[in-house]
Amino acid sequence: MRKNADRLTDFEISLFMAALAKLKDQDGPSPSYSSYWRLHGAAARLGIHKSPLFLPWHRAFLLDLERRLQEIDPRVTVPYWRYDLPSSKIFTSEFMGVTEVGGEFSPGGQMGSWADDELGRLLRDPGERPADGINVGLSADALDERYLFFQPQLENRFHNPVHRSVGGWLAGPSAPADPLFFLIHGNVDRLWAHWQWKHAHFDPQNELSYSAQGTHPGSGPDAGYYPRGVYVRDTMWPWYAGPGDGHWPAAGHSMKSGLSGTIVQPTTPESQLDYMGSHGGTDLGYCYDDMGYTGLPLARS
Fold first, then answer.
1. What is the pLDDT of residue 255?
2. What pLDDT shows up at residue 70?
């Protein structure tokens, strides 16, 4: 159950932050936290933005991190930040760090020493106080029921403004170096889940659910327009296990199994659409606190 970050208990916050810190300091063959921003930076050149791939790729990316955190502590899930609403807990020293407009960012707590060997100390440069909420200028009623139009609406009008507003690392390809990235994308994924329920768009073979049909070069309205990896039955990089070619670099990054033993193989856009397996697809092992285990929205939002 992924929860609204502002509704987490102090104990749940401490578990999440401790798991993040342990992943960040992890050595050995398994990817550490720093590998995520590098993967994102490389994938940004392969069509994960401004394309139909934006939503399923980031859903898989978020799930990948969540499962690695659950290897450290199975009680942990990645919360989401309702950034269109004020928050009293997220931007505190115990959680994501105090983030104010102007002046040097001084996060405190677990985030106080958050740094990257290549990027240096965590940087945010907000244009507005994020704890007050960010006006993303998009209502759910304004979202088109066709994926071809819904995806750019969600990316451009709901996702992009929050990255620009908080700024710093979040404003560029290295955005996942800031853990706030995953709380942002939890909220993006949650809104996609609500849209899927509203229009019953879980069928990966229906272009209303996902516009880039087939395998590369594809079929439907996006046929021949996008590179390999974008179409619904293409394997997505970096979960592609291969030596690399002219389009994809070499990758050995695999999707971890879920707590239920579910293994998503291969990791395609198709595998990400029916995220709870409620319509015959692959159960990815998570839901949202305002959706319920059956995929139906609950009263609160």
1. 75
2. 93
- Residue 146, token pair as written in the block: 């066709």
Of the candidates 95, 107, 99, the residue with the CA atom closest to the CA atom of residue 15: 95
**Which residue carries 């929860």 as its tokens?**
3
Q: What is the dihedral of CA 109, 114, 120, 122, to 10 degrees?
A: -70
The amino acid present at 85, given as its one-letter code, is: L
Task: Tell me the pTM.
Answer: 0.92
Encoded tokens for 286: 């998570």
User: φ and ψ at 242, to 5 degrees?
Assistant: -165, 170
CB 226 within 8 A of CB 207: no
Q: Which helix (H) or strand (E) holds 121?
A: strand 120-121
- Is beta strand 115-116 parallel, antiparallel or unpaired with respect to 120-121? antiparallel
Contact predicate 95/15, CB 8 Å: no
Each residue's pLDDT tens digit, 256-277: 766 555 555 678 999 999 988 8
Of the chain, the percentage scoring pLDDT greater than 70 comes to 86
H/E run at residue 115: strand 115-116
Q: Which residues of the chain have pLDDT under 50?
A: 29, 300-301
- Asked if residues 197 and 295 have their Cβ atoms less than 8 Å apart, the reply is yes
Omega within 30 of 0 (cis) for the link into 266: yes
